[in-house]
From TrEMBL:
Coiled coil: none
PANTHER family in alphabetical order: GROUP II PYRIDOXAL-5-PHOSPHATE DECARBOXYLASE, MIP05841P
Keyword Lyase part of the UniProt annotation: yes
Superkingdom assignment: Bacteria
Needed co-factor(s): pyridoxal 5'-phosphate
Protein known as: Pyridoxal-dependent decarboxylase
Gene3D superfamilies referenced in this protein's UniProt entry, alphabetically: Aspartate Aminotransferase, domain 1, Type I PLP-dependent aspartate aminotransferase-like (Major domain)
A Pfam entry, by short name: Pyridoxal_deC
Family indicated by similarity: Belongs to the group II decarboxylase family.
Alphabetized UniProt keyword annotations: Decarboxylase, Lyase, Pyridoxal phosphate
C-alpha cells in the first residue's frame, strides 16, 4: 500500500504541474544553489515515509524547475511532450523494463523494432538501415561514428575492435565550420580528437559550401601517401554534414556533400538532431532542404526535440548494418539468445542497461500518424515564419536568418529557428541584445536563449512544441518588442 500511496501522491503533483504550464512563469524561480540549500543535509540515518519524501521533494525543487513543456518555451531546441508519449513514458517507468535484451523484455525489443522502422520511413531513409535508440544526439553521433570508424579502418586492413587505435592508420575527418559541439565531443570520445578535424568553410548562413568541401578533399588527396590502399581509398575518411544548424536552422546541401564524399571513398554522416524531420513536411520547399539525405551512410537525430517525446531520446541510424553491429556488440555468456530470433537492442547502442524509451517513441508516432507528424513540423515552421516576419518589422531588430518571402508575405526562415539581434551603432548591439534576452526570460512570459553568431551576440527563438499556437508566439514577440524599447531608453 505504501508504493501505491506514493504513486498516487506523485500523480497529484504531476497533475498540478501540467495544469500550471499554461500560466506559470516559464523560467525557474530558484537557482541551483538555492535548491541545493533547500535539500542539502546529512544522509538520513533512519527511513522516511515515501509519501512524505515525495511531498518534501516537490516543495523543495518546484521553484527550480523550468517549464520546458510550456507552449511559451522557445529556448534551445526543446520540444514538449505529446500526451500519448507522456503516458507511455510513465508506463515505461512503472513497468521498469531493462530494454537491453529481447529475452529480458520481449515487449521492449518488439516495440523498438517497430519504432525504428517507422522512424526510418518518416525520415525517408533506407529500409535496410539499422537503428539504435540512445540518450540523445550526442550518443547517437558516438554510435554512428563508431560504425564509421570500424568500416573505414577495416577497408584499409585494420581491425579497430581487436587492435584499438594505437598504431592504426590515421582517419581523416571533415566537418563544417558551423557544426554542433556534440560532433567534436563524439570525435573526442572515439579517440579522434578535435584538433585533427578539417574544418570546411560555410556560406555565412550555416551551410557547408560544396566547393569548399571539394577543394579540401582534393587538396588532402594530393598529399596522401600510398602506404595502405584498398581500391581508390588512400586515407580512411569521414565527412560530417548537418541538417539543421542550431542557430539558423540551415541545412547543408546533403546530396552534393554525399556525392563528393563518396567520390573520395568517404563515409558520410549527417547530424540531423532536428532538421532531418523536415523530410516529413508537407512543404516542397522544406522537403527539398533535406533532399539527398538518404544517400548518406549514417544519421543522428533526436526524439525529444521535434518528435516531442520526453527526455531522453536520441536515434542513431546506420546504412551498413554489419558495421553498426560489429562496432557495438559485446557478447556475454550469460546473454541467452532470443528464441524468436530477434536481435537484441544492446547490439545497436553503447549501453547495456537501458530504459525502454521506445515505448514513448512508438506512442508518439502511433498517435500522430503520418498526417499528424507532417502537421506538427509544418505548424512549428509556419509559426517561426510568423514570428520572424513580426520581429523583422520592429525598429532596430534584425532577423539574421530571414530571407524575403513571397510578395506581401514578410520573410521566411529555413525551419523552426528564428535568430535575431538588436542592432545599434557604436558596438552597443551586443549589450542591447544580451539585455533584451535577459529581460524577456526574467519576465517569465516567454523563454528565449542567447547565443553568439559570427562573433556577435544574438538570441534565438525556437518553435518546437506541439502545443504552441500563434497566441504564444505573438505574446513572445510583444514581450521582445517591449524589452527592446526599455533597453533603448
Amino acid at each position: 500500500m505504501t508504493l501505491r500511496a506514493a504513486l498516487r501522491g506523485a500523480t497529484r503533483h504531476a497533475d498540478a504541474w501540467l495544469a500550471s504550464l499554461a500560466h506559470r512563469p516559464v523560467r525557474p524561480g530558484l537557482s541551483a544553489a538555492e535548491v541545493l540549500a533547500r535539500l542539502d543535509g546529512p544522509f538520513p540515518a533512519a527511513p522516511s515515509d515515501p509519501v512524505a519524501v515525495i511531498d518534501a521533494l516537490v516543495e523543495a525543487v518546484g521553484g527550480g524547475l523550468t517549464a520546458t513543456g510550456s507552449p511559451r518555451f522557445f529556448g534551445y531546441v526543446v520540444g514538449g511532450t505529446l500526451p500519448a508519449a507522456l503516458a507511455a513514458d510513465l508506463l515505461a517507468v512503472v513497468w521498469d523494463q531493462n530494454a537491453a535484451l529481447a529475452s529480458l523484455s520481449p515487449a521492449a525489443s518488439a516495440v523498438e523494432q517497430i519504432a525504428g522502422r517507422w522512424v526510418r520511413q518518416a525520415l525517408g531513409l533506407p529500409a535496410t538501415a539499422s537503428v539504435g535508440f540512445t540518450t540523445g544526439t550526442q550518443m547517437a553521433h558516438v554510435t554512428a561514428l563508431a560504425a564509421a570508424r570500424h568500416r573505414v579502418l577495416a577497408e584499409v586492413g585494420w581491425d579497430v575492435g581487436a587492435d584499438g587505435l594505437t598504431g592504426a592508420p590515421p582517419v581523416r575527418v571533415l566537418a563544417g565550420a558551423d557544426r554542433h559541439t556534440t560532433v567534436d565531443a563524439a570525435l573526442r570520445l572515439l579517440g579522434f580528437g578535435s584538433r585533427g578535424i578539417h574544418t570546411v568553410a560555410g556560406d555565412g548562413r550555416g551551410r557547408m559550401c560544396p566547393d569548399a568541401l571539394r577543394a579540401t578533399l582534393d587538396t588532402l588527396a594530393a598529399t596522401d601517401t600510398p602506404t595502405r590502399t584498398v581500391g581508390a581509398r588512400r586515407v580512411p575518411t569521414i565527412v560530417i554534414a548537418q541538417a539543421g544548424e542550431i542557430n539558423t536552422g540551415a541545412v547543408d546541401p546533403l546530396g552534393q556533400i554525399c556525392a563528393l564524399g563518396h567520390a573520395h571513398g568517404a563515409w558520410v554522416h549527417v547530424d540531423g538532431a532536428f532538421g532531418l524531420w523536415a523530410a516529413t513536411s508537407g512543404s516542397a520547399r522544406r522537403r527539398a532542404l533535406v533532399e539527398g539525405a538518404a544517400d548518406a551512410d549514417s544519421w543522428a537525430t533526436d526524439g525529444h526535440k521535434w518528435l516531442n517525446v520526453p527526455y531522453d531520446c536520441g536515434i542513431a541510424i546506420v546504412a551498413d548494418r554489419a558495421a553498426h553491429r560489429r562496432a557495438m556488440v559485446a557478447p556475454a555468456d550469460y546473454f541467452p539468445p532470443d528464441p524468436g530470433g530477434a536481435l537484441d537492442p544492446v547490439d545497436w547502442t553503447p549501453e547495456f542497461s537501458r530504459r525502454a524509451r521506445t515505448f514513448a517513441v512508438y506512442a508518439a508516432l502511433r498517435s500522430l500518424g503520418q498526417d499528424g507528424l507532417r502537421d506538427l513540423v509544418d505548424r512549428c515552421c509556419e509559426l517561426a515564419g510568423h514570428a520572424a516576419s513580426r520581429l523583422a518589422g520592429l525598429p532596430g531588430v534584425r532577423v539574421l536568418n530571414a530571407t524575403p518571402g513571397p510578395a506581401g508575405h514578410g520573410v521566411v526562415v529555413p525551419l523552426n529557428q528564428v535568430l535575431l539581434r538588436v542592432e545599434a551603432p557604436g558596438g552597443e548591439g551586443d549589450r542591447l541584445t544580451r539585455a533584451v534576452t535577459a529581460a524577456v526570460t526574467a519576465g517569465g512570459d516567454a523563454y528565449l536563449t542567447g547565443t553568439v553568431w559570427q562573433g556577435r551576440a544574438a538570441m534565438r527563438l525556437s518553435v518546437s512544441n506541439w502545443s504552441t499556437t500563434r497566441a504564444e508566439v505573438d505574446l513572445a514577440v510583444d514581450v521582445i518588442a517591449a524589452a527592446v524599447g526599455t533597453a533603448r531608453r
